[in-house]
């Protein structure tokens, strides 16, 4: 389901006792994870397909298999095609800390937590660590899905082994400075959060410009620079993602779902939905429900 791919900043990944969550993204068709951010680190395994991702407005196109690491606080998005399959571990780095201070804590974990060193942003099959990294990640992911205390111990152990592997191969490097100025990054996060929380309301360029303290004309150029698309285009993506989830989770009429998700005209909603998913809302509901029935 497309709604699984919206990882909002305010979403809790895991629990307070075990702040880690695992996600699977498998689609027969293309899928998109809209621009978003969260405080947790994310290790994303691109298992099959072709992917276009951005991190802090730096874009890259890559074919699977590959690992991508999104640092804590980074603004990122993902578009997938060619029968894509991917999964990810999203976790707070501080879950790996020790109660007592030793040279592992002071020499490795603290620099990671403070952002002085970072994971490699991309690990491809020709990377010397790839095979072992892949084994450790898969073991951690499978264990994370089980959810028991013994499996959580395995997850934590495998993540520490991943750090040891990267450290041994000198892959933990001084963190690169973001190409975005701090105020631009802060404004981008403010806009993302506000739009995700208020997408069902009538939002205008004037409101968003006032929120960021910019005039309307400059805001439009500013927004396109930050997000690579227009304000209306990005807002509609959020609305369509949420509407797609509502289509599967309820039997409400299409017109009611459209109105509840910020679309004043059902005809416009259907046209946008068809462009976004390749099918009408009715066809999407039918095909996704058929897929779920066949998998039972």
Automatic annotation (TrEMBL):
Keywords: DNA-binding, Transcription, Transcription regulation. The lineage of its organism: Bacteria, Bacillati, Bacillota, Clostridia, Lachnospirales. Residues 189-287 form the HTH araC/xylS-type domain. GO terms for molecular function: DNA-binding transcription factor activity; sequence-specific DNA binding. InterPro entries: AraC-bd, Homeodomain-like_sf, HTH-like, HTH_AraC, HTH_AraC-typ_CS, RmlC-like_jellyroll, Tscrpt_reg_AraC-type_HTH. This is AraC-like DNA-binding protein. It comes from the Bacteria.
């Amino acid at each position: 389901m497309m709604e699984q791919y919206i990882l909002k900043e305010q979403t809790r990944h895991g629990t307070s006792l075990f702040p880690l969550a695992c996600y699977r993204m498998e689609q027969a068709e293309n899928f998109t994870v809209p621009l978003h951010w969260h405080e947790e680190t994310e290790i994303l395994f691109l298992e099959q397909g072709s992917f276009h991702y951005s991190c802090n407005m730096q874009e890259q196109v890559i074919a699977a298999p590959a690992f991508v690491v999104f640092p804590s606080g980074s603004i990122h998005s993902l578009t997938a095609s060619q029968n894509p399959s991917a999964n990810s571990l999203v976790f707070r780095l501080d879950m790996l800390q020790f109660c007592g201070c030793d040279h592992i804590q002071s020499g490795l974990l603290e620099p990671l937590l403070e952002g002085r060193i970072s994971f490699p942003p991309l690990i491809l099959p020709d990377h010397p660590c790839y095979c072992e990294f892949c084994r450790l990640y898969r073991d951690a992911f499978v264990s994370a899905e089980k959810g028991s205390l013994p499996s959580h111990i395995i997850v934590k152990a495998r993540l520490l082994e991943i750090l040891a592997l990267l450290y041994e191969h000198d892959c933990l490097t001084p963190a690169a400075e973001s190409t975005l100025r701090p105020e631009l990054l802060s404004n981008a996060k403010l806009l993302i959060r506000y739009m995700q929380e208020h997408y069902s309301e009538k939002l205008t360029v004037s409101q968003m410009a006032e929120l960021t303290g910019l005039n309307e004309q400059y805001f439009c150029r500013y927004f396109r620079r930050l997000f690579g698309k227009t304000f209306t285009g990005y807002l509609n993506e959020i609305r369509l993602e949420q509407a797609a989830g509502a289509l599967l989770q309820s039997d409400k009429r299409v017109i009611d779902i459209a109105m509840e998700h910020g679309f004043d005209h059902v005809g416009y909603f259907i046209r946008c939905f068809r462009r976004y998913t390749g099918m009408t809302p009715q066809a999407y509901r039918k095909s996704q429900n058929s897929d779920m029935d066949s998998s039972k």
